[in-house]
Amino acid sequence: MTQSPPETERAAKTPQALGDRVFRGIAVGSGGVIMLALAGVFAFLAIEGYPGLSVDEGLYSPATSFLGYVGPLIFGTVLAAIIAIIFAVPLAIGIALFISHYAPRRIATPVAYLIDLLAAVPSVVYGLWGGRELAQHVGSIQVWLHDYLGFLPFFAGPPSASGRTILTAGLVLAIMILPIITAISREVFAQTPRLHEEAALALGATRWEMIRMTVFPYARSGMISAVMLGLGRALGETMAVAMVLSAKPIVTLNLISGENPATIASNIAVNYKEASPDKQAVLIATGLVLFAFTFAINFLARWVAGRSQRRMAR
Amino acid sequence: MNSTSIRRAVVPGIAALALLLSACGAGNEETPSTDGGSSDAATGLSGDLAGGGATSQEKAQAAWRAGFQTANPDVTINYDPVGSGTGRENFINEAYLFAGTDSPITDEEGELTAAKERCGGSDVIQVPAYVSPIAVVFNLPGIDSLNLSAEVLTGIFDGSITAWDDQAIVADNPDADLPSSDIVPVHRSDDSGTTENFTKYLEAAGGWSFEPDGEWPSDISGGEAAEGTSGVTGLVTDNEGYIAYADASAAGDLGVVSVKVGSDFNAPSTDGAAKTLAISPLTEGNAPTDMAFDIDRATTESGAYPVILVSYLLACQTYPADQAEVVKAYLEYVISPEGQEAANAEAGSAPLDAGVQADALAILEGITAQ
Amino acid sequence: MSTLEATRTPDVVLVEPRLPSWAPLLVAVGSAGIGALLWIFGASLALGVFAAFVVFLIVLPVWSALIESRRAAVDRLATSLVWTTFLIALVPLIWLVVTVVREGMSTVSPDFLTYSMRNVIGDAQGGLYHALLGTLLVTGMAALISVPIGIFAAIYLIEYGKGKRLARILTFLVDVMTGIPSIVAGLFALSLFVLILGPSIRFGFGGSVALSLLMIPTVVRSTEEMLRLVPDDLREASYALGVPKWRTIAKVVLPTCLGGIVTGVVLAISRIIGETAPLLVVAGATDSVNTNLFDGRMTTLPVFIYQQYTYSTPKGLSYAWGGALVLILIVMILNIVARIIGKIFAPKTGR
């Protein structure tokens, strides 16, 4: 995409060339700092967590090995993140489109502003609100879901009247990641070249066709980035999940019962404080697993995105 | 045009606000150093003291800090509510000068030995500082209190008693208008001293068949979990038919269970809690500076309330010269009648029994400078 | 001549048949009426609203498909869906904001803003001044660390590292970084500073470092996307004028997408300003005012809120909501300032 500047200029020992070298140096250095920080976090997790892989069996209760301990947690983490993404992505893209292409400007600006505000609400408040207010309402919806859709494994129940389920936790996460996905999508949508859009309209496309043909292809990479950022937050969120979820180390697809798998991050936050040194090592080791897991998910997402991009190019 | 003028006003407005914020200290804080240092402080103590640990003590620590800092304006005490485990760890690695812990420090994972090493080889001081009744709270409209024995409580919390009008409950509460709805027992989702003490009580007095621990046994099916005391009481407040255990001071308007002690049913009270501690023996084989108790949770003593949480303070016998005085003074204040009264007023804890208090003060007397 | 015109007019239809402009409104009113009827006949309010939405989403496209064309129907469906998502999203948003304002409004007072919690017990008036200062300092420092690193890393990725292996690895690592749980970031920062400065170190700067770990990926990612959207024509035009690359980036590329970058930075700050767990671990907790980032414990607003919440007293709870309201107000002000900055420095565009 970007061309290098003319070679002659780089060769000349002018102040500009020096400026270029310095600028490039700072840019590369910043990248290096990020790598260093990540390597540091990884080293920290590995060193502190390694002893946790093989401690007294009792600490892995109810399982007897580290894998047995971390299994339900991975499951819970993925489940909560999937629920969050399912709810948040269509909503966020809809709102972003609304702001960038549908709403009259007088409405769009305050809406964008309000959504940004949602990002600022501390996770403790999300937890408080999710557990005390949202959960109550989700609780009654859950009873309804169980009555009419109880044959699905997701709504097998028995439904929890309090609504402190993984469904609620997923919803809270969805609301938490909504502003991130919306804000980035909105910015990239707004950057679609005006000419492309007008060309599409001039060819007789409806507004939706114009969006499909010019906006979405142009914003693909940005939308994927936005979703990945949201996913990262959903995977790593601690307090809000801890405060909403009624957790238990089990693996179940049942979304509406009072027994839900915890997420790795919330499990660390909840149990780290009172834990003995060995147990703390176990918890940090689960952090390492989450790290590796985020790694894998990102790898997969890149691969999928890369493949579909190639297909489109063809 | 209009919006521009508003915009023009916003920037200086914010700048002025920022200036205002940074220009002065907090409205309620005195600034002791400006009026000639510590000359007016009666005790002449000064310095920063860092401690931390059990979250259960947090409110009491706030009361103690306030009382001590008012008497010694040049001292700042900080207490990080990071949890007992982290508190012990930070005490051992010298991050904290004192620590609060819900379960007494032992040598199971070598923590006591490590702590002893941290204290230069001398025995670690461990004194009870915060004794609090744990209440069993429930939400049933129109019912403020219920009489339950330890066996029935065990049945409710391990899932073998599932309805509010179960015979076992009705038998002890003939006058209560009990609904036939399901009981939903609520436990802490986090590892906590409250859970540990509550399950220890169930084991000692009610035939609880699981290993008492800070984490709720995962073999029990049914029930729900919530994070922290606030989470638990919030969950019970919002939902009818829910029952949970929580620090008595957080019970609020919820119904409270009177537990069976001997032939009586006792509601949670600070006097009852203090009494239970007073009749409990010290753990055998501990160092003379270690006041860990073997709480007699199955007691039948009349007036005692056996569902209690005892939180301890950890300290060393010797400190560097500039710290010893302050640590000693602060811990003595905590144990003293004034300190215990202050914690009672703020956190609803049970003031220590006079005998226990005297023993603890005698141990703290031994804190010296290196 | 006249016959020719008469025969031609019906042949060439220049305008497709279209629904009248009041059609969506009519359908909206109609479906609202159906929802209201359901509600009157005993269905719950939520079900009524839900039914109204479904009726609207079905009737309008079908009508359009009958009168207009299939393409127009799809367009109408898309438009209605976009409006629907917007309305749905407003529900939690307004609900949350109303909750915080309702619960926090009565607590916030001049005293609440200018008092600290030092020596405050019982019913005495306390405040969050210490936490307010802590939040501004710790978050400000975190932004000071992360924004340059993040923006320069994004510049490297887009302007220098295009197609290089190092850049691909870096992009990937930044994605991984977004998934670091906040408490792990705190524990990492703590062990880092304990290694350097000894075990008893607890200071605000440590919190800034932990928050930077969480903030950098958001800054990099959003900036990267914005840089990518700057048309190459601009860069090439600048090179053609003999402007060196670094000046092109600084004077042409960055200003072009400044609005987006500022949004990203504000978003990143919003993301971290509400963090609790890492700060409690590495910055500790205190009741007193501390304005020195490098010495002594520092409390931030989220820690204050969480502490008050865990007290589980009525006063604690109202202080927690009050703190939340103040925190949201801070971010609101931040947002306004950022937008003004973006407006001032952004080049004039057609939009």
Automatic annotation (TrEMBL), chain A:
Q: Where in the cell is it found?
A: Cell membrane
Q: Which UniProt keywords apply?
A: Cell membrane, Membrane, Phosphate transport, Transmembrane, Transmembrane helix, Transport
One term of GO molecular function: phosphate transmembrane transporter activity
**Do you know which SUPFAM superfamilies this protein is assigned to?**
MetI-like
Please tell me one Gene Ontology term that the record gives under cellular component. Answer: plasma membrane
An example GO BP is: phosphate ion transport
Q: Which PANTHER family match?
A: PHOSPHATE TRANSPORT SYSTEM PERMEASE PROTEIN PST, PHOSPHATE TRANSPORT SYSTEM PERMEASE PROTEIN PSTC
Q: What is this protein called?
A: Unannotated protein
Source species:
freshwater metagenome
From TrEMBL, chain B:
Annotated PBP domain ranges read 41-338
Report biased composition (Polar residues) as residue ranges: 30-41
UniProt-listed CDD domains? PBP2_PstS (cd13565)
Q: What GO molecular function annotations does the UniProt record carry, in alphabetical order?
A: phosphate ion binding
Instruction: Enumerate the Gene Ontology biological process terms.
Output: phosphate ion transmembrane transport
Database matches in InterPro entries: ABC_phos-bd_PstS, PBP_domain, Phosphate-bind_PstS
Q: Which UniProt keywords apply?
A: Phosphate transport, Transport
- What GO cellular-component annotations does this UniProt entry give? ATP-binding cassette (ABC) transporter complex
Region Disordered, annotated ranges = 27-53
Protein family membership: Belongs to the PstS family.
Q: What is this protein called?
A: Unannotated protein
UniProtKB/TrEMBL annotation, chain C:
Entry keyword set: Cell membrane, Membrane, Phosphate transport, Transmembrane, Transmembrane helix, Transport
Q: Which GO terms describe its biological process?
A: phosphate ion transmembrane transport
Spans traversing the lipid bilayer? 21-41, 47-66, 78-98, 128-158, 170-197, 203-220, 252-273, 319-341
Where, subcellularly, is it found? Cell membrane
Gene Ontology molecular function: any one:
phosphate transmembrane transporter activity
Which Pfam families does this UniProt record tie to the protein?
A: BPD_transp_1
Looking at the record, the residues that make up the ABC transmembrane type-1 domain are 132-338
Q: Specify where it is mainly localized.
A: membrane
- Membrane topology according to the record: Multi-pass membrane protein
**Got a GO cellular component term for this one?**
plasma membrane
Cross-referenced InterPro entries, in alphabetical order?
MetI-like, MetI-like_sf, Phosphate_PstA, Phosphate_transprt_permease
The record ties this protein, via SUPFAM superfamilies, to: MetI-like
- CDD domains in alphabetical order: TM_PBP2 (cd06261)
What family is reported? Belongs to the binding-protein-dependent transport system permease family. CysTW subfamily.
Name of this protein: Unannotated protein
Q: What is the lineage of its organism?
A: unclassified sequences, metagenomes, ecological metagenomes
